[in-house]
Amino acid sequence: MLASKVTTKSRGDEAEERALQHLLAQGLTLVERNYRVARGPGAPGAEVDLILRDRDGTLVFVEVRQRTGRDHGGAAASISRGKQRRCIRGAQTYLMGLRDWPPCRFDVVAIDGDDLTWIPAAFDAS
């Protein structure tokens, strides 16, 4: 039997699934997964790992980061301002497709080894 190869993508998918299950258990509902905006001439691409709706109707754009440990600040510290901008750009593009804009926020789920930390309103669009 062939052993499956563990790739960066498979680890990322596993982290996103773990984050999703945690957020669903907190009462959020899934709206979209891996929302991507293609890169165009002079326009950088964008991605939102998870888009969920909170119980109060808030649309939650979630960045999921995983690290094997807390070296160099851990998973949460690895979310650069550039990564935040790509998430914000993805959220803006997503919202342009909606008739009415609900309240929104940007959350982070940081996974360091076995520890999962949910950080609501981790950053904003300013």
From TrEMBL:
UniProt xrefs under InterPro entries: Restrct_endonuc-II-like, tRNA_endonuc-like_dom_sf, UPF0102_YraN-like
Q: Which domain of life is it from?
A: Bacteria
Q: Which GO terms describe its molecular function?
A: nucleic acid binding
User: For this UniProt entry, which segments traverse the membrane?
Assistant: none
Q: Which Gene3D superfamilies match?
A: 3.40.1350.10
Q: Which family does the UniProt entry place this protein in?
A: Belongs to the UPF0102 family.
Recorded hits in HAMAP family, A to Z, give:
UPF0102
Q: What is this protein called?
A: UPF0102 protein DEH84_15230
Q: Which organism is it from?
A: Aquabacterium olei
